[in-house]
Amino acid sequence: MKLFKTLFATALILLSGAAFSANIQVQAVSQHVHILSGKDYGTNIGLFDTPDGLVLIDPMPGEPYLAELEKTIQTIYRKPVTHIINTHAHADHTGGNAFFASRGAQLVTGAINRFDITHRVVKSHTGTDNIYYYKPGNIIFVGDVFDTSWHPTFYAGGVAGFNLAIETILSLGDEQSLVVPGHGEAANKTSLRAFRQNPLDWVNMVRTLSKQGLSVEQIMADKRAVELVARFNPQGKSPFLPSKAYERFVQRTLQVIEHELL
């Protein structure tokens, strides 16, 4: 038994961060849990080997990449995907559904009470954001409610929905739980709490500058705005936020503020 554990631990080290193909990155969390991501889309894809089958979360689109994703999964587990679930309906998280369904996998929608998964539904990034906690792996997939590679996108639920979504995530698992965002590096709950504070500071700052009569362009140029946007770039990407995307972020934040005042 000790030899098996040693060999398995060594295998995890070799697998973690390994590229099984040119376009698919693999992170082994445990013997039964993997995080995969595609080169161009950067969507975090979950893979759970459960007693009820092999569960795939959020397969990204792109026919050539999907063939590589399928081959990678076969390399890891030597068996096909049996079930697909999605954190939300956007194409970068559902684009591979049809591909795996055509190979026999079942798309599971609605309330999920199988696979040792605790399922919660919140409204933040979209009108229906699914949170999945897989207890055997102590891992939480949260979709684009949380993103460690981009600015927050809380447009459907506003500040209230965003806060409730984060509280829902924090209520699952324990302090050692791994929290997997829709895009970017996996994190812990300490990082999630810091992530929650930054958008709240951002909204308050935009609200204050707007009340002072500043235009979108003036808000974008304000030193406080520039400093806050930098907080959303923990990986230090350069460039991080193109001008058009930055402008859209400010505009949509103002829309959220206006809506919550109605």
TrEMBL record:
Enzyme class: hydrolase
Cofactor: Zn(2+)
Signal peptide, first to last residue: 1-21
UniProt key word Flavoprotein: no
Catalytic reaction(s) noted: a beta-lactam + H2O = a substituted beta-amino acid
Alphabetic keyword roster: Antibiotic resistance, Hydrolase, Metal-binding, Periplasm, Signal, Zinc
Matching SMART domains: Lactamase_B
GO cellular-component term (any): periplasmic space
Protein location: Periplasm
Stretches assigned to the Metallo-beta-lactamase domain: 42-183
Gene Ontology biological process: antibiotic catabolic process; response to antibiotic
E.C. numbers: 3.5.2.6
A single MF term (Gene Ontology): zinc ion binding
InterPro entries: Beta-lactamase_class-B_CS, Metallo-B-lactamas, NDM-1-like, RibonucZ/Hydroxyglut_hydro
Similarity comment text for this entry: Belongs to the metallo-beta-lactamase superfamily. Class-B beta-lactamase family.
Protein name according to UniProt: beta-lactamase
Origin species: Pseudoalteromonas rubra
Lineage: Bacteria, Pseudomonadati, Pseudomonadota, Gammaproteobacteria, Alteromonadales
